[in-house]
Design goal:
alpha/beta; 12 helices; 10 strands; globular
Length: 386
Amino acid sequence: MRAEVRALLDERLDRMRGNPSSVHSSGREARAWLDEARERVAAALEVAEDEIVFTTGGTEAINLGLLGALRARGPAAGLSTTTIEHAAVLGVLDHVRESGRPALSVPVDPFGVIEMEALHEAAKGCAVLSVQAANSEIGTLQPLAQIASRLADMGTSRPIFHTDAVQALGRIPIRLRAWHADLAAFSAHKIGGPLGVGVLYRRKGLALSPLLHGGGQEAGLRPGTENVPAISAAALALELAVSEQADFAARTGRLSHSFWGQLRAVVHGVELNGPPLDDAEGNLRRLPNTVHFTVPNARGGTREHGGNDALDGRVLVARLDLEGLEVSAGSACASGSLEPSHVLLALGHTHERARRGLRVSFGRESDEEDVHMAVDILRRTFLSLR
């Protein structure tokens, strides 16, 4: 958590006395803080205040947006999404499929970019379409403006458009209006905010059915007393992330290039996953702070035919952690899974190769010294395993 965000959280926790739904003075003060937070988030995202709904995290924001939109459109409404979405979206897709509704998976190309023709066909057969802004593992950015143009050509038959923008916030410009997004999900802890606060953007006038029932909080969409101190802190974190986005992207982009160049020089056979770091046309195709790569199999072949179990991504994560380098072998929400990354499998990787994927991310406090140390730890670890 950012220092200034934690300071605000502590201050609000110390002063918090009332329920924001109460009409006495302590309640009115809490309500003022909640209104201020909503105003700050809306201003940072360039949307209206009544288009912001606070939740307990990105997963709840995604579920409320997708299931809320589907339920509001009747029992036959279906969902389409890509094969590389976060587990929160794919979990909803499974639920929709199990309930007997249409549930379609749209393929991606070897870089993780959605197949536009398949998207167009899938959009014809669903009430809600969900496409992530940025992939949480390989960092691929989806062409949301191009998707918006395709959907606009469908006229009144276009599906509701939802985007999981959790990984994109603070890394790339958020352009909800340009993307023609009807729904978008965000999470505070990805940007130096507190755990347990999410944001759902809901376009004004779009009907949603609540998933929970009780009070009338959050325009009746998310009943339950709001965690005002955490929401206040989250709003500040979001405001700072948006204002500092360009500087963050430039700095972490340089670190990513430096890291990848150094790693290739000392670990032969390492392969980049996702779009290239450099785009000849100058287009932004991947998150600036994320490098996902596949480590070479020291013995060659699969595990059943001489492969090296020690090069399994989850084993590598543990070994690297012992050396002081924290990386991941996939999305944090699925890192305990025994299965290889569904993202890499969707890109066409074999199960064996998909198990050798690692993700390195750079944050607000990362610097060139961290890059050198990370490369050295990776070099020494791979040498010891070989």
